[in-house]
Design a protein that fits this description.
This protein is of the alpha/beta class. It has eight helices and five strands.
C-alpha cells in the first residue's frame, strides 16, 4: 500500500478532519432547552489500515432529569421510561456529559482530528439536546456546534428509506422492533447503519474519490 493510499485510510482524512461519534437520546419531550434527557447512548468509531470504518468504544447512561426540567406524558408513554425508578441506576446529566465528552476528546486527540461530529438518525434532534446539555454543564464541548451526519438522509439516498428500522432491514441489518427506542439499541443500530453506508460507498469505488476530467 502506497503512502498516498494510506492517507485516505485515516479517519481524519475521510471526514474532513472530523471525528464521527454516534449518539442516540431518549428524552422527556422535544424541547432541548426545557425537557429532560433520560437516557443516552454513544458509540465511537475507528478506521482500520485498509480504510474500513468500524465501531470502537461504547457508553450508555440512564440520566436523572435535571433540576426544573419538564417531562411530558406523551414522551413517557412512547419510550416507556419511568424517570424516577430507583432500578434505572441513573446518574446526573453533568456526570454523563462529562464522561461522554472525555471519551470523545480522547478520540479526537488520538486520531489527530480537529473536532468531533455527531452521527444520529434525524440528527438535529440529538444534536440540539447535546448542545443544550453542554451549555448547562459548563463543560467544553468537543462536538461541531451545527454540522452533523444524519443517517436518515444518508439512508434515504442509499436505500430509499428514512425510518431507522426500515433502513437497517433494507441494507441487510437485522432490526428488533421490541428493542427499539432504547438509547443503547438505537445507537448500536445507527452505528451499524452508518458503517454499512460508508463501507458500501468504498466498495462501490466512491472512496477515495475519483474525479473525471471533462472533455
Amino acid at each position: 500500500m502506497s503512502i498516498n493510499q494510506e492517507k485516505f485510510n485515516l479517519i481524519k482524512n475521510r471526514f474532513r478532519s472530523f471525528y464521527p461519534v454516534v449518539v442516540d437520546l431518549e428524552t422527556g419531550g422535544f424541547n432541548a432547552q426545557t425537557d429532560a434527557i433520560l437516557e443516552i447512548g454513544v458509540i465511537t468509531l475507528n478506521m482500520d489500515k485498509l480504510g474500513w470504518i468500524k465501531k470502537e468504544n461504547k457508553l450508555h447512561f440512564h440520566i436523572k432529569p435535571f433540576k426544573g426540567s419538564i417531562i411530558r406524558e406523551e414522551s413517557i408513554e412512547f419510550n416507556q421510561i419511568d424517570p424516577f425508578s430507583p432500578l434505572r441506576g441513573a446518574i446526573s446529566e453533568y456526570k454523563a456529559i462529562k464522561n461522554i465528552f472525555n471519551l470523545v476528546k480522547e478520540g479526537v486527540k488520538k486520531n489527530n482530528c480537529s473536532k468531533a461530529i455527531i452521527v444520529a438518525h434525524n440528527a438535529s434532534f440529538d444534536h440540539s439536546f447535546i448542545m443544550a446539555a453542554s451549555k448547562r454543564s459548563g463543560i467544553k464541548n468537543p462536538f461541531h456546534t451545527f454540522a452533523t451526519f444524519d443517517t436518515a438522509s444518508l439512508s434515504g439516498l442509499v436505500v430509499g428509506q428514512t425510518v431507522l428500522a426500515k433502513a437497517c432491514k433494507s441494507i441487510g441489518i437485522t432490526f428488533d422492533n421490541n428493542q427499539a427506542h432504547s438509547a443503547l439499541y438505537d445507537t448500536l443500530q445507527t452505528a451499524n447503519l452508518f458503517c454499512e453506508i460508508v463501507n458500501k460507498w468504498k466498495t462501490l469505488g466512491g472512496w477515495p474519490l475519483k474525479t473525471r476530467k471533462r472533455k
